[in-house]
Prior knowledge:
With 383 residues, the protein is an alpha/beta fold.
Amino acid sequence: MHRKDIMKILQVCGGPSWGGIEMQTVKLAFILQNAGHETCVLCSASGEIQKHAAEKKLLTESGIFDPGKNWFYSLRRAKDVIRSFNPDIIHVQRSHDLSVIAAALRSLHKQTPLVFSRRMESRLKKKSPVHRLIYSRVDRAWCVSSFVRHNFLATSPMKPEKVFVMNNGIDLTIFDPGRYNKSEMRTQYGIPADATVIGMTGRISPMKGHADFIQAAAFLIEAARKKLFFVMAGGASVGEDAFANEIYALAKSCLPENSYCFIDHQPDLAGVLSTLDVYVFPSHRESFGNVLLEAMAMQLPIVSVNAGGVTDMITSGENALCVRPQHPEEIFSSVQKLISNQVMASQLALEARKRSLDFSSEKFLENLITEYQEVISQKKDGK
Length: 383
């Protein structure tokens, strides 16, 4: 890579929590750095982002929405970082950071391109004069799905010609069914070798559909003519331990003791997926659904809700069987079809794997870098 092609990219994501947006921020900075670009992550002091970014040896700066500090402190720190790092482009990952970065750029009289990723649906309308001023400084926005783009245009003052869809990408060298031996992985996780295994992945949170999955599992066990086992992989979301305990209690009351397991957060999610025969995605309303894409890449037959950002990946009857959100009886009947019709299950799984190839991390990175360069070029040309 020639020096002139190297970009200096400031990634901004304030807040102390650790969830999907924060993980994507660190992951994005890491892959950009590995691609030869200079990256800096501006985050909150002593937060999870700073910790995980440091583990990956990323350059970090703190000061945006630090605990106990006000907005003006964040503004001063943002100006300091922009002066010292002097980025070619600034990528903001959370909307609440836009006010600080837009104000910092204006007060510094900097024309540095400012781009924004919208990863979640919002129900708050932000079309006040203040919001119009903030968003007028954003040069381009990328939404994680068509569903989120529609929502973003309805709730923000951004002009449609500046808002695009950029789906997430996954590492297909990790999520590759050829890497794993199902029997060995079942032994590793204590999953019965002789069972038909149905599973779901994702943190335990009210919108993720664990209760629907458990109710469908109870229906399946009642109707079963073969041994079934159910896997739920993913621990409690931050601050939602009480809800997770409700889910554990529901499973205990609805399912036989040796018919299911919960697998907490762990790094080898592809390994967990390799133990399954059928994957279920019961989330009520998903902005995109990375875990669904990962299951598709692992060539699993899938039963999925047909709502939100899922429609960017799933075509009902082509690469998955689709159900309505919060209808466990439909999950039950669809899983029944798959476990009783191996030809259908295999065909759907092959089509799911084929579709997942469009979402490789390499394609995502190539697209993102092209977008960065285009925004930088347009800004220089005064467009």
